[in-house]
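Protein Entry — a single chain follows
Next Lines — sequence and tokenised fold
***
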Amino acid sequence: MEQEHINRGYLLPPGCKDLIDVLNLKQQGLWSSGQVIDFSKQKAQPVKLSPSKLELFLEALKKSKLSLLKFEAKQPPQQKPAAALPPIVGEIVIPAETTVLRLAALLGQKPFQIIADVVELGFFVFPGDRLSFEIISEVARKHGFLAIRAAS
């Protein structure tokens, strides 16, 4: 069975089995016959297209959904429509700041569910973290409760 590098050896200089050997030869100065081209020093040249080729290029550009001729500003992502809230089944009187664990106990939910609801609002919290009253009221409303701020 032949080695794979022998099958593609025609692409490499004599005595090289892979591109690493070519780079080593170039660094050692043993490969200076001009067959190795340094593309990093060459500058791109503009290409002149005939009108027919230009039309084909522009059609292909439109089909690929790329636009080199016009940059469009990205639109902010559309917010999802608010899901229908459940009917209010009760009221809870809660301090201005309460932990996730206490809120979960008051709402009869597991702490991970309260954390998921807070993450949907754009905040990442841990079970022992305190929540502001605004977040508490939104989460409580999602679970069918009306939050009332306790007197300080």
Notes: DSSP finds six helices and four strands in the chain. The chain has a mean pLDDT of 76.
